[in-house]
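>> received
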Amino acid sequence: MGGRKPEPNLLADVNARIRDVADRSVARSDVWEFMCECGCEQRVMLTLEAYEQMMLDGTSVLVPGHEVTPAARAKALCEDARALTAQATQQVARAKTNKRA
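>> returned
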């Protein structure tokens, strides 16, 4: 990957998709390759159980010694909030349209 670093929430989404693929995979590997969520290009090898525990704990998938800065985390949360607001607005509009029909 060249240029800009991917945003932490994008990498968390990628990791969630990796988890979904791993769960449906017929190749039952013990360890899967996840993306470091700090934005670097390094990978983190985790079992699905370790990944799920990190999600329960609310921690990011990170190479040891890496971190997601508070500013990056705040930006990701703001983007998530905007996306949820847009989804809610769309759902309200859809409900109003269905109510008229």
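>> The first helix runs from residue 8 to 24.
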